[in-house]
Specification:
3 helices, 5-stranded mixed beta sheet, about 350 residues, about 5% helix
């Protein structure tokens, strides 16, 4: 026989009142499937189904359940429109106007989204469910697990309609490869000096207490550590001297101990820990000596509680209460000796 899609609420008194005709396909005993194609141009709305027996001409009552025909694609709002590259552990942010899914889909031929990849390979797409309460809300679509390459963001509703990707026409790159580990250019620093870290351009460098380094695999791990166990500094985005640059990280607020360096490139990928370490020492050395009268050219004897690299002779009439005061001294008021 035949099946008919009829808009709900339509009064059916004869076959002339029936709407769109379909030929059912038998899928089992007393089980039939009604195929529907976008080319059928059935108007949007809620429909019921009638069945006609071709042998007797009898027409059934309307089906007790309904089918909603939806031909309208969801509207995608791209909240990460300024993003050009993302790395592992990061999310792309977008919103959809309908229930369904938000996808990151691999770029296919001619630069268009490869929608088939959303079914074929989990490394070619990532998605997040959009429920009724999520409509219009910013959703985080995870990048983890995607293969390196270029991706589109798209929305699909419950009816299977895809958003119009031509309306925003942009892609972003997924980069899952971590950068090379940075290196310290010096061996020790304090609250009034810096750790000098050599890394690639762009991103952020971190100094992390070595006792915490084993728990770090992402930038989020570092940010979750106690404030006195790490510091960071932004790396210059470009330069003219090869593929690396040196960035100075302050020691203010850190606890004494040994530190390693990490480098997070602009995509968010985090390097492994530096092969070398640096010592952070906030305690000033203590120098003792007996009162001595010396003439120019003679030597002054003193004892220090730790190794020192530079000793200053300061005018006894000057009160040194801070690094700022020390830096303000004239050359006549201080003299440095190695």
């Amino acid at each position: 026989g035949y099946a008919y899609w009829v808009r709900q609420g339509t009064v059916v008194s004869s076959e002339l009142d029936l709407g769109y005709t379909m030929s059912p396909v038998q899928s089992g005993v007393n089980s039939w499937t009604l195929p529907f194609f976008s080319s059928d141009n059935l108007q949007e709305g809620t429909y019921v189904v009638y069945v006609k027996d071709t042998e007797t001409g009898a027409i059934s009552l309307a089906s007790t359940n309904t089918v909603v025909v939806d031909n309208t694609a969801p509207t995608l709002t791209d909240s990460s429109s300024s993003v050009t590259e993302l790395g592992m552990g990061q999310n792309y942010q977008a919103r959809s106007s309908e229930e369904g899914y938000l996808y990151l889909v691999a770029q296919g031929g001619w630069g268009m989204p490869d929608l088939s990849s959303a079914q074929d390979s989990t490394s070619a797409y990532s998605r997040v469910r959009v429920t009724s309460s999520d409509i219009g809300q910013v959703m985080n679509i995870p990048v983890n697990g995607l293969a390196d390459g270029y991706y589109w963001v798209a929305a699909v509703d419950k009816a299977g309609n895809w958003s119009d990707y031509s309306s925003y026409g942009r892609t972003f790159r997924v980069d899952s490869t971590p950068p090379d580990a940075p290196q310290f250019a010096n061996t020790a620093f304090g609250e009034n000096s810096t750790a000098d870290i050599t890394s690639g351009y762009g991103g952020v460098v971190y100094v992390v207490n070595s006792t915490e380094a084993s728990s770090v695999s992402t930038v989020s791990d570092i940010l979750a550590l106690a404030d006195n166990t790490w510091n960071s500094a932004t790396v210059a985005s470009s330069g003219y001297f090869g593929n690396s640059t040196t960035t100075n990280v302050s020691g203010v607020g850190l606890t004494d101990g040994t530190y390693v360096a990490f480098y997070a490139e602009s995509s968010g990928n985090l390097s492994s820990a530096s092969a070398n370490t640096i010592l952070f020492d906030s305690a000033a050395p203590i120098v003792t000596y007996s009162d001595q009268i010396v003439r120019p050219g003679a030597s002054l004897s003193f004892v220090a509680n730790e190794a020192v690299t530079l000793v200053y002779l300061i005018d006894a009439n000057v009160n040194i209460d801070s690094q700022t005061t020390f830096n303000s001294l004239t050359q006549a008021q201080r003299e440095g000796h190695m």
